[in-house]
């Protein structure tokens, strides 16, 4: 049980990091295209800033949002696995993708199409973020299978 | 010892008297209440007030505080998010031509997923408006119902300035001149383009653009002579700005900003860049500046020459004392009455405040008799 919790927290960290760094990088890429002096140092300090700030001073802590979405999705996946014969890795990968889908596509519907996560404003950004959820789910399912085997 | 006690008592009485005098400068009188998110205010006569409600109604309030039924002929608006019937201004020759200008958000009739900011002019006839004509339509259309800007101001030369917000999701577009996101627009009173607009001959630029690099501009005012245009805009989380607007200038959003995104992320790590204007003043944390008026009347001589900025958060009005273009001090007034959507100077020199929300009020600030 304790190991499962650790795996889940690691998954939340991975997905949150990918989500946050994506927002940071897309912002900096645009700034760079505007001839703003974006350097490697600014890239790293900005990612570090956003990892702290998006989990501390934002409207909703990113990690908490990801954790709740993944928790619900993984719980549904666990129940579904009792009836559906599919590899755990893929089941949790789908669940992770669905969790991020809910965050990036369904959340704006409640807020007049406003994308609070800046990286989710483009279609490519949305696909990327859903993929990070799937990757996180795959990681969780993979480790779960490894542990139980 | 007795002497010291007497002195202290004297000082206490004196300070109480001074404090009462300062507090007694003005009183607040509720003119009207039960308004649904009052937004724009105009004065068709000395004792009448036209007020827009974000929900889509235009109403006339007489000197007794009686609120009229909605004035007919107002176009259907998109009342969602931050959108709705927004500002109202009177034509400089309103007394003779009865022209009013309304800004509002509306749904695209051919695609319900899209909407935009529209400005129309119309003839005001007391309980109706007629001959409604579009003078400005913001393009491209947007999916979001936020950040419309939508304030208007007639400059002394008779041209109309319109603030057009960045649409929230489209913030980067504020830096490009081929769209209306995050811009101040300048048009003639009939919607045509003034011949001295700054981007008239710039390739790829929309000729009605006056300045760019703005976010959600909700206050615009000018000094008595019309030589200084003040504009305020909502920053994201922090970084609300007061700017002095000059044509052709880039005010930096979102390449430079003193605010962060609502998610907590940096929108930009930069606060300045050559070629981008610095705000005249900025607020961190945000005060959510809404309306603005330059006070040049005699009813409150001590306020003459000040700029008043209404604020939604926490809900007050900032009196900015100016030395020319420079803000030299800030005083917080009228706090404790809720979110204030607008502040405007009435013809008699009193200030009119509009409080936000479904039970919005118009409140007159007047000297104590």
Structure in words:
The complex is a heterodimer of chains A (149) and B (369). In chain A, 77% of the residues lie in helices and 0% in strands. Chain A is mainly α and 149 residues long. In chain A, helix 1 (2-33) packs across helix 2 and helix 1 packs across helix 3. Chain A is globular and about 55 Å long. Chain A starts with a helix and ends with a helix. Chain B is mainly beta and 369 residues long. In chain B, the strands form six sheets. In chain B, strands 1-23-22-21 form a four-stranded antiparallel β-sheet, with no helix packed on it. Chain B has a four-stranded antiparallel β-sheet with strand order 5-6-7-8, with no helix packed on it. In chain B, strands 9-10-11-12 form a four-stranded antiparallel β-sheet, with no helix packed on it. In chain B, a hairpin with a 5-residue loop joins strand 9 and strand 10 (160-164). Chain B is globular. The A-B interface holds A 20, 23-24, 27, 30-31, 34, 36-37, 42, 45-46, 49-50, 53-60, 62, 112-118, 121 and B 80-82, 143-146, 168-169, 172, 175, 237, 255, 260-270, 273.
Features:
A: 149 residues; mainly alpha; 5 helices; 77% helix; 0% strand; globular; B: Neuraminidase; four-stranded antiparallel β-sheet
What is the fold's blueprint, element by element?
The complex is a heterodimer of chains A (149) and B (369).
Chain A: H1 2-33, H2 40-53, H3 62-80, H4 88-110, H5 123-148
Chain B: H1 2-23, E1 26-35, E2 38-45, E3 48-53, E4 58-61, E5 85-90, H2 94-97, E6 99-108, E7 111-124, E8 129-137, E9 149-154, E10 160-164, E11 183-187, E12 209-212, E13 216-222, E14 229-234, E15 240-245, E16 281-283, E17 289-294, E18 307-311, E19 316-323, E20 326-333, E21 340-345, E22 351-355, E23 360-367
Antiparallel strand pairs in B: 1-23, 2-3, 3-4, 5-6, 6-7, 7-8, 9-10, 10-11, 11-12, 13-14, 14-15, 15-16, 17-18, 18-19, 19-20, 21-22, 22-23
Give a short summary of the structure.
By secondary structure, chain A is an all-alpha fold.
